[in-house]
Amino acid sequence: MTAIDGQTRHGRARDDVSGAVDSDLRADVRYLGNLLGRVLREVGGDDLLHDVETLRAAVIEAYEGSGTGGAARAEELVADMSAERAEAVAQAFTTYFHLTNLAEEHHRVRVLRQRGDDGGLPGDSFPATYGSLVEQVGADEAAARLEGLRFHPVLTAHPTEARRRAVTTAVRRITDLIDERDRARNATARAENERRLLEEITTLLRTSPLRTTRPTPLDEVRTAMSVFDQTLFEIVPQVYRLLDDRLQGDDAGRTPVVAPAFVRFGTWIGGDRDGNPHVTADVTRQAAEIASEHILLGLARAATRIGSALTLDASETPADAGLTALVAEQERLDPAVAERIGVRAPNETHRRALLFVAARIRATRRRDDRTGYAGPEDLLADLRTIQASLVAAGAVRPANGELQNLIWQVETFGFHLAELEVRQHSQVHRTALAEIRAGGELSDTTQEVLAVFRTIADLQSRFGVRAAHRYIVSFTQSAADLTNVHELAVAALGSPGAAPVLDVIPLFETFADLHASVDILDEAVRTEPFQRRLAATGRRLEVMLGYSDSSKDVGPVSANLALYDAQARIADWAAANDVELTLFHGRGGSLGRGGGPANEAVLAQPPGSIDGRLKLTEQGEVIFAQYGDQDIAARHLEQMASATLFASSPSNEQRTAAAATEFADLAQQLDDVSRKAFHDLVKADGFAPWFARVTPMEEIGLLPLGSRPARRGLSVESLEDLRAIPWVFSWTQARINLAGWYGLGSALEAVGDVDALRRAAAEWPLFGAMIKNVEMSLAKTDEYIAGRYLELADRDDLAARVLDEMRRTRAWVLRISGGADVLEDRPVLARAVRLRSPYVDALSHLQLRALRSIRTSGSTDPTDGDHRLLLLTVNGIAAGLQNTG
């Protein structure tokens, strides 16, 4: 199977964007494609390779040409395949996507490593951002803003994460081999590398992507832990160091660090029980224990490694009074351990002290109350004592080097690794409280609700309040939905004094709830539990905004505008009430759920809504894309921190404020027209069952992709209980991507003034980002294949409405951009999409074959051949399109 260099629609030159992509990337993709072709021949013989190549040629012809001959031939080829051959071909194309994706990731890392420190742009890099901030607000204010910087990604399980962990692991091994190939210096080494690549590609091809059972929440926890172990634990101090080096220049390492530990990680995995019956109080407890085990192991190893290297002789680097007292306390705490360490380092006091610290971390992991640390604050105190003694003795570089990295790690991760957040639906709380107030025997569900609060209290006792204190209320519709949580906590623990410390966070999701947000907050903060918590935290308050359900509720355009409006009003309310606000953005990976370039989205937010603090969700596929590689993770953290810091700069806030005023009337027109267009579609008679028929939505719900069900209920007659993630994922699988663009074309056409729209795209950050995201979404649609999905149901009226709006949106977006095709001004991204699209087409034809058979037979057996082929194609299309759910 060989790789193509690039194709475009309607017969335009195949390589019109190839010059923008490094030849090394093209060489890697071509090389891996050739290796896959060899493996296909070895595994399935010439017949399998012939079928794959014949289908590939047909979809390329369809993609490049203006007619439908290639597409018709592709459909015929797929229809004539045996069930076994269809599966083998689907697996071949899916494997190709995994190889292409890893080649692009590898090239991105290559570019990051080769790139010099070019300064970058404000909002994108540390030097440019901080330099611009100093110019605008002065050095002292810039330093104060840096000290208050906080970027808080929250990892969440992905109900439509299609890849098995075994596949992810196999892909990582191939990535390592490609990296190793770059360093191979002779023919023998390259030959051995190629042999191993062929072995691993064979393994990947033969590894079933299909889960036989649905993953449990704890499986999802362990998958997330692999990212912390392999990437985040090591990369976080490197990012702080990068910032410190750039700020201090030649003084870096000789003076105390100025870079704060600005990252905090959160997690919903094992804590998010909204609609997931598999997340219980016991699961939440185990999730926290697993995370603590990982971070304490990491800290102990780091302390041991750094301590072992801290071989400064006491005659040259004497201990100060603080360190002398610490060593004496250590000897009293555990004389045997102190003596054993002292034998190894009799004249190296700093080494002895840090190795004893490592022993205490190990005791903490064993839950040894006698010698273990009570909390991370005590560990930090010991580390800072050692650091201060080194500085006093003149050993400033060891003090500010690896030891400082360890301090940063403790500040970031504590003993809990990621702050575990609990989420539950407001209706569950209402039902539980009604039972409690009525007296009598409590249901199992209510008992479980109460058990969660007891678990939170236990976790805070073991790991500190930071470990678990945020409680998110889904579908917050009133202040009572928030105060109900405090009442339940008291009911669970018996008294207010025994209840855990809780920051109750409203999640405003629907269009109506976003509009009611300020009134709800205003009432909630006047209640006694909120007043008490505000006083304890310095009037800090967190508010979460849901990108998913608002988009499913009113369409992507109105949802974006409603989210902006809600943020502006909440920020104004917070300022008027002396509240330090943190907005928590419930973004998904897909464009229909707030995806797209995150740093650009941050810079487009309303004035006062960021203020140096950003919290957002990072989900399944996005977690591995952003944090799976150390270089990419470092770059992502730098970008996000820079955007968070720069968003509140006077220049950026003035720009967004001026645009909001200038384009207010345009925003209103876009809102009104797009929402009506969206509602005319989704509120049409029979829309919900039609949607379930023309997409693989119901079949996806039967497949073991994630621990959480796709629906809160079971009906296909309404969209109300359908989760927003499978709503988006299903449209993506059908190559329609409706959730990312529907309604925009009608709204732009209603405005009608191309010059005004172009000016808005250039001057209004929110609208400009929206147009860019819609371009990417449209680039991943395919009108012909979308039409074939829409033919699965007998509703020509709804199908025509969707295709008409798709054409209308594409035409108007191109008028605004002035290009001949979408993504024309982003050639590297355009080529990445075009590189994949014909191959995704092949999988779409295979999926359509499976869906037609399922629709005809009415089968609901997830183990039959048609469902198996469907899931294979779900994996492949997700890998090919990326940011899918």
Automatic annotation (TrEMBL):
**GO BP terms in the entry:** carbon fixation; oxaloacetate metabolic process; tricarboxylic acid cycle
Q: Where is the active site?
A: H158, K552
Q: Which Pfam families match?
A: PEPcase
Checking PANTHER family in the record gives: PHOSPHOENOLPYRUVATE CARBOXYLASE
Q: Does the keyword Thylakoid apply?
A: no
What is this protein for, i.e. what is its function?
Forms oxaloacetate, a four-carbon dicarboxylic acid source for the tricarboxylic acid cycle.
Q: Which family does it belong to?
A: Belongs to the PEPCase type 1 family.
Q: What is this protein called?
A: Phosphoenolpyruvate carboxylase
- The record's gene field reads ppc
**Which controlled-vocabulary keywords does the entry list?**
Carbon dioxide fixation, Coiled coil, Lyase, Magnesium, Pyruvate
Origin species, per record, is: Curtobacterium luteum
InterPro entries reported for this sequence:
PEP_COase, PEP_COase_bac/pln-type, PEP_COase_Lys_AS, Pyrv/PenolPyrv_kinase-like_dom
What is catalysed by this protein?
A: oxaloacetate + phosphate = phosphoenolpyruvate + hydrogencarbonate
Q: Supply the EC number(s).
A: 4.1.1.31
Coiled-coil blocks: 174-201
Required co-factor(s) are:
Mg(2+)
**Which Gene Ontology cellular-component terms appear in the entry?**
cytosol
Q: How does it assemble?
A: Homotetramer.
Q: Tell me, what is one Gene Ontology molecular-function annotation carried by this entry?
A: phosphoenolpyruvate carboxylase activity
Tell me yes or no: is Nuclease among this UniProt entry's keywords.
no
